[in-house]
Structure formats: C-alpha cells, structure tokens
Specification:
- This protein is α+β, with helices and mostly antiparallel strands and about 110 residues long.
- The protein folds into 2 domains: about 1-75, Winged helix-like DNA-binding domain superfamily/Winged helix DNA-binding domain (Arc Repressor Mutant, subunit A), CATH 1.10.10; about 80-108.
- Helix content is about 65%, strand content about 15%.
- It has 5 helices and 3 strands.
- The chain has helices spanning about 1-15, 20-25, 35-40, 45-60, 80-105; strands at about 35, 60-65, 70-75.
- A 3-stranded antiparallel β-sheet has the order 1-3-2.
- A hairpin with a 2-residue loop joins strand 2 (about 60-65) and strand 3 (about 70-75).
- The protein is globular and about 65 Å long.
C-alpha cells in the first residue's frame, strides 16, 4: 500500500515535469480559458496543447467543460500554487548560490 502512495505522488509530479504544462498552469492562474486562447497565449500547435491539457486533466490538476464547440480549461484546485511557489523559492536560492560561486571564479 505504501508503494502505491509513492507511485501516485510520482505520477502527479510527473504531470508537472514539462515546461509547457507549467506555462499552461500559469496562464490559467487567473481564470478559465478556451483552448483557442491557450493556443494563442502559448504559441503552440493545438494538437500539442491538447496532449498536455489531457495529461493535466488526468492528473486532477485541471478541469474542462465544453460550451457548444469550444472547450474551456481551468485550475481544479488553486492549492497547486502551494506546491509551485516553494519550488520557485528553492530555485531562486540555488541560482543565487551559483551566482556567488561564479563571481568568485572571476576573482582568481
């Protein structure tokens, strides 16, 4: 049973492991958008976008609804940003440390 918990966590994190998926989440941060708007905002092919939207929906990160011929996507639970914000903080620290190391290299 414990292994299953780790697999579910890994699958969820794997859904976030593509830059385009993180961009999709950021674009949807302030509200629902149609697939057409997402295509324009992200500058990707609709087929590529659809594949990533499906993965995010299957992971439970996004919801979708259809209105006539238009499909709209939204963030299912904004707590996703409670995961993404600390990652950004950790990365900022990492890059600052790297900058300090690189600055000392120039002094040798």
């Amino acid at each position: 049973m414990e292994d299953m918990v780790y697999k579910v966590k890994a699958d969820f994190l794997r859904a976030l492991s593509y830059p385009i998926r993180l961009k999709i989440i950021e674009v949807l941060k302030h509200g629902e958008k149609s697939v057409g708007i997402l295509v324009k905002s992200l500058g990707v092919e609709q087929s590529t976008l659809s594949r990533h939207l499906l993965a995010l929906r299957e992971a439970g990160i996004l919801t979708s609804r259809q209105e006539r011929t238009t499909v709209y996507y939204a963030i299912r639970d904004h707590d996703i940003f409670k995961i993404l914000r600390p990652v950004a903080v950790i990365l900022r620290k990492k890059f600052k440390e790297s900058e300090r190391v690189l600055a000392t290299l120039g002094k040798e």
